[in-house]
Structures are given as structure tokens and as C-alpha cells.
Amino acid sequence: MNWQTELNTSFSWILTALFWVSLIFALTAFALSKTAFGEKFRLIIQPCIAQSDKFKIIGLILILFTLILLEVRISVLNTFFYNGLYSSLQDKKADAFWFFATINLMLVIFKIIHSVINDLMRQVFEIRWLEKLNAEMLNRWLAHKNYYCLKYSEELPDNIDQRIEQDAREFISGTVELVRGIINSVVSTIEFTLILWQLSGLFVLFHIEIPKGVVFFIYLFIIVATALSVWIGYPLIKLNFNKERFNGDYRYSLIRVRDNAESIAFYNGEQKERSNLHEKFNAVIKNRWAIVRRMLGLDGFNTGVTQIAMILPLMLQAPRFFAGQVTLGDMHQTVQSFNRLMRALSFFRLFYEEFTLYQARLNRLHGFIYKLNELDNIEVHHPIECAERVVLRNFGIKDQHQRIILQDINIALRTGDALLIQGASGAGKTTLLKAIAGIYPFDTLGYAERPCNSLFLPQRPYMPQGSLREAICYPNIDTEHPELVHAMRSCRLEKYVSALDVENDWQVILSPGELQRVAFVRILLTQPEVVFLDETTSALDEPTEAQLYQFIRERLPKMIILSIGHRCTLLQFHNTLLKLG
Question: What is the predicted pLDDT for the residue at 350?
Fold first, then answer.
């Protein structure tokens, strides 16, 4: 082996290596797909592949593989050029020294260009994949009201926002790093083992001569170090999984305090919230100390192995150098090759901490997507949409355990009718309203139908962040609706007309009564065929409540109204009464 041969055969070497790497990668991927790990991985990436051009994916992967192989080849050539550089120094050949110095300088320039292109292609691959995965997860989460149905799940996935944003992003970067590291390690192991095989001779251990013994000793040293490292770091898998969960729980608790600041202030609940936050934070700290204790042992061991590896090759080759069997260049090439081989074989040992985090993210993403699949496979009987009336015949409702909580309800509402639902707390009023509106996540009994142009308004209407105009017109009302200002004045929100284009957190700024008045603005602008009012006037005084009901009855005389309310004053605006319990 010499530098000229290695340089001349580099192109053919890359093509051959690319073929074998691609073939082995495909076979390995197929074999892994039959394992539990592979099934989880496939569940996450399969929708992304289905949405993409498979030829573009294959082309991008082949480019990344080629760049990895180029990196290995550059490192191999680097050892030969430095061999020539140091050998020319030993032989005091100035012309040869400057020749190899120039070649090494050219190789450095090539490495810089390669590094820039490599980073660019990696980022392109990760960004494109993240776009696909994020779109898939968001679509699945929002489809069929899964984001709402998950609230009722017995095994609710924790910190869904973290899984969609952080876990997905770091899962992709971790996958790319893992695949790149494995390919680089395997190819580097083969290449630098061949170099060390040529450089090593007889290795004498306890007066026993071992041909090529340096290579065997290096392999034994690294394998033992890797096995011990894995044994020391194994508990980190569970600890890092808990780390993500505890951090997410603590962050969510902080957000709840922010979002419910007014209620907490009225209750003087600071002490209780402080206690709850301390409890969540203590779980984070306790888990972190467990990680620190485990990492002290792992990092100490890895540091020791790394330091020993810096001097070990010189000690192994020193007898042959002093015997005149190898040159100074051979010694330097031995050190370089040993360090590259050490890095290659130690990939799993050094990557182990990251792999524990990677496995935790894989499990979290798999759990989230698997739960969405479960929800999609649940058959729920919803009312027939786009009828001209609201009809229930022998209607009933089941809970998540298939227990019947309401049954034998019969209602027939035609154009202009209004139904008031009353009953004790917990009697199932809101549940019934959700079932008629088609947003109840569990099964129902009997027959039901309703108009398709419907509007459901909860007790505390939702106001997204942004301008007041956008918040009132949520989700799909025209922000330039010609009746917007008039509707606001009719619903006694005239003082906010001048603030329509002001961006703020209107959910917090508006009082509960003002939020409920916004709900009636939406009714006037949407003009639905049927509106569901779940105690939507509970925060209003009776005169304002009467004024708003009277206004929508006059403006929208054909609209069907289904209301939940406890006040007897609501009876005058409804021609039908249903009492539960």
C-alpha cells in the first residue's frame, strides 16, 4: 500500500463502497423492520415516505452516503500523505517534504469544501424530513378532532406539544447522526484495519511472538472498553426518558399558572401553586441527580479510555521503530490509523448517551402516533349531518367504558324551534349537547340528525392570539365582514371597535362576560342553521342575556337553538324544555 496507489484508486473505491453500503443498508433496514424497534421506526416514517417522491429520497440518501465515504477516503489519504511528510523529514529530503506539504494543503482545502457541502446536504435532508413529519403529525392530531378526543383517553400521552415540536426535530437529527456514524464507523474500521495490518509486525507479549498482534490487541482493548461502557450507561435509557417527561410536566404546570393567573389570584392560591411547582421541579432535580451520578462513572471511564488511546499505539510500535523496522512516517501513520480505528470502534460507546435519548424520543413519538391510530380505528356513531332539522329517536350516550349514561331521548326540532336543556350538575347536559353537535368522542345509541351548518359555543369562548378582528372572526369568518362593527355594537362591545386591529392576548384581556358577548357576535356573523349554547350566558346579567337572546331570535328567526342554562329567565326564549335527571 502506498499513497500513489491509494490516490489513483479512490474513484473506483468510492463507487464500489457505495454499492456495498447501499446494499447492506437496504438489507439491514429490512431485517430491522421485523423487530420491535423497526416497527416503531416504520410507524413514524412510513407516512412521510408515502407523501414524498421516492426517487428524490433515494437520490438524497445516495448523496449523503457518498459524502460519508468521501470523508473516510480523505482520512485514509491523509495518513499516507503524512507518512510521506514525516518520512521525508527523517530522511532530510527537502523536495519530498515540500511536495507532501503541498499535497496536504490541497487535501485540507478539499476537506473544507467537502465539509460545507456535507453540512448543507445534511440540513436539506433533515429540514425536508421535518416538514413532512410535522405536517403528518399535525394533520393526524387535528383530524377527526383527535386533539379533543385525546382528553378522554385513559392513557393520555403526556406533553403532546413537546412530542410534536422537540421530539420530532431531535428524532430526525438523531437518526441522521446514527446512520452516518454507523456507516462511517464500519467503513473506517475496514480501511484502517487494513492499514494497521500492513504497518504491524510481530508483537511480543510475555515472550510470546504474535504475528500482527498489535491489531488484535487494539481490537480486544476497544471491544472490552465498549462492553464496559454499555454496562455502565444502560440505566440512562430510562433516566433520559423520565427526563423528557418530568421537564415537560414542569413546563406545562408553569403554563397553567400563566393561563389561569386571574383565578389563582382571586383564590389566593399562590402557596398551593408554589407547592405544586416545587413538587414538579423536585422530580426534575431528583432525576437529574440520578443522571449525574450515572454519567460521572460513564464520562470518567470514557475519558480514561480516550487518554490511554493517545499513547498506546506509540508504545506498541516503539520496539519496531527502535529496531529500525519502521520509519517515523510509519509511526505517525500508525497513531493516526489507531485513533481513527479507535473512534470507529468506539462509536457506540461514545454515542451511547445520545442513543438513550434517541430511544426515548422514538418511544415517545411511537406512543403518540400509535394512540392516534387507535383513535382513528374507533368507530363512533355520530348524527347524520345536513338534515333540515334536529331529531333524536331513542337516543342514548355511552362513556369510554361503554356504559350507558343517557338513553331513550326523543326530540324533534324544526326551523325556528328552540330547546332549553336543564338539570342538576352532572346530569349529562353538556355531554348530550356535544353528542348532538357531533363532537362527542364515544359511541351513541339510537338515531340522530342535525343541519350541517352548525355552531357550538362553550361557556368560555376561545380567542386565539392576534388582532381582535382575527380573534372575533375565528375560525373562518371573513375578517372584513361588513356587519362586524354593527354586530359588536349590537352585542354591547362598542368600546372595542377602535381596537379591532390591535394584537394582544384577548383571551386574558376580555372579561368572561365580554367573551360570551363575542360568542353572540359570531352567531350573527356566521348565521348557522343550528347553534349550540353551553351556558354561554352564565357570566352575563339577566337584562343583557335577555337582550342578546331576543336579538338573535329577531335577526335569525329560522335558526334552531339548543341551550343549556339554569336560569328560569331563559324559558321565554325557548318553546321546548328538556329536563335531565
Answer: 64
pLDDT lower than 50: segments of the chain: none
Task: Quote the CA–CA distance of 371 and 141 in Å, as a whole number.
Answer: 10
Residue ranges of the domains in the chain? 3-377, 384-579
Taking Cα atoms as reference points, which of 383, 367, 386, 364 lies closest to residue 375? 367
Q: Using H for helix, E for strand and C for coil, what is the string for 295-328? A: HHHHHHHHHHHHHHHHHHHHHHHHHHHHCCCCCH
The C-alpha angle with vertex 241 and arms to 239 and 246, in degrees rounded to 5, equals: 90
Q: Distance between CA 516 and CA 460 in Å, rounded?
A: 7
Per-residue confidence (pLDDT) for residue 564, from 0 to 100: 92
> What secondary structure does DSSP assign to 339-406, as a single string?
HHHHHHHTHHHHHHHHHHHHHHHHHHHHHHHHHHHHHHH-----PBPS-SSEEEEEEEEE-TTS-EEE
Pairing of β 444-449 and β 390-398: antiparallel
Q: In sequence order, what are the residues at sequence separation of 6 or more whose Cβ sits closer than 8 angstroms to the Cβ of residue 106?
A: none
Of 362, 354, 432, 351, nearest in space to 398 by CA: 432
| Structural contact between residues 443 and 468, judged by C-beta atoms closer than 8 angstroms | no
| Cis peptide bond N-terminal to 458, omega within 30 | no
Residues 280-337 have pLDDT tens digits of: 999 999 999 988 888 888 888 878 877 777 777 777 777 777 767 777 777 777 777 7
Question: What CATH number is given for 3-377 in this structure?
Answer: 1.20.1560.10
Instruction: At 454, give phi and psi (nearest 5°).
Output: -125, 160
What is the pLDDT at residue 203?
A: 64
- Cβ neighbours around 277 below 10 Å, total: 15
Nearest CA among 455, 480, 457 for reference residue 559: 455
The C-alpha atoms of residue 563 and residue 531 are separated, in whole angstroms, by: 8
Instruction: Report the pLDDT value the prediction gives residue 305, as an integer from 0 to 100.
Output: 77
Non-local CB neighbours of 241 within 8 Å, separated by 6+ positions: 359, 360, 363, 364
- For residue range 96-125, list pLDDT tens digits in order: 888 878 888 888 898 899 999 999 999 999
Name residues whose C-beta falls within 8 Å of residue 93's C-beta, 6 or more positions apart in sequence. none
Q: Decide: 574 and 420 in contact? Cβ < 8 Å.
A: yes
Instruction: Tell me how many degrees the CA angle 396-434-574 measures, rounded to the nearest 5.
Output: 90
CATH (one of 2.40.50.40, 3.40.50.300, 2.60.40.1180, 3.90.1300.10) for 384-579:
3.40.50.300
Q: How far is CA 219 from CA 188, 258, 343, in A?
A: 14, 56, 12
- Report the distance separating Cα 415 and Cα 388, nearest Å: 8
Task: Write the DSSP assignment of 491-520 as a string of letters.
Answer: TT-GGGGGGTT-EE-HHHHS-HHHHHHHHH
Going through 164-320 in order, the beta strands assigned E by DSSP cover: 202-205, 208-211
Q: pLDDT digits over 202-245, tens only?
A: 666 666 667 777 778 777 887 887 778 778 877 877 787 788 78
pTM given for the model = 0.69
Any idea what the Cα angle at residue 107 is, between residues 101 and 110, rounded to 5°?
Answer: 150
The pLDDT of residue 544 is 93
